[in-house]
Here is the input.
Amino acid sequence: MPADVPTDPHVTAVRSAPATSDAAPSRDAFLVVIYGDDLGRRVPLSAEPLVIGRSSKSAIQLDEQSVSRRHCEVTFEDGRYVVRDLDSTNGTYLNDLPVERGELHDGDQLKVGPTIFKFLSGDTVEASYHDEIYRLMTIDGLTQVHNRRYFDEALDREVARATRYGRPLSLLVFDIDLFKAVNDRHGHLAGDAVLRQLATAAAARCRVNDVFARTGGEEFSLLLPEVAIEEARALGETVRARIEAHRFVFERVEIAVTVSVGVAAWRAHMTDPIALMQVADARLYDAKRAGRNAVRG
Here is the structure.
């Protein structure tokens, strides 16, 4: 991260940019939608300012209530692309930090309302775009962990392996307790921030061979090859405690978050991978009925 970007998440990140130059862009660059409507859409950038907003006159129109009519703009200044917030109601976010003005670097993520763009530029921009499209097939754009499609394929593969070799296989399914209340009280942008922070905190506990994915709106699943049910229960408790202790913050407001966890293991009598998911889901609801912030399995 550049030295002039604050590391405090409560401080608005402002990257200095020189005065506007009339020089034409020296290399290709574009924004790619990696989360939201029009997933995979590519928007080329040029020397002309590009406005993102709810207005039909915007170059990129985002028809969302959390997006201002003229929300932000991307301009080309002295050989670099810069994003500037246009006094929007809900702010513009660059790599999860609120910005008034910030220089865009290859790979940066720009969040406007619920939509996330990835900025790609450089000599290999076309190859980067195709790599990004492949990632969109397997990675959830909001949380940057695996998506449901990837998880389902991994579940089929690991169940077949466990059956063939008689190896243990366990599954954790957990979701955020009373997540609707988080959205209602703090707003959907805060809810998105909670999901991203939770995914990062939980992923830090995963082993190389584990498969961690966002499998629903606020639901996550952790597939554990070579792990028996006893160890899986202990891991479920570790995840529950880690999330309860984690400090979730959005725009200087701390948000209390807990999860309920269901634990299941593959058994010889199960007929297909769906059966394993059904057992884990049933135990997740047992945890909810037990008062939430609990592990059952």
User: Anything to note?
Assistant: The first strand starts at residue 13 and ends at 14. Residues 21 and 78 are 5 Å apart (CA to CA).
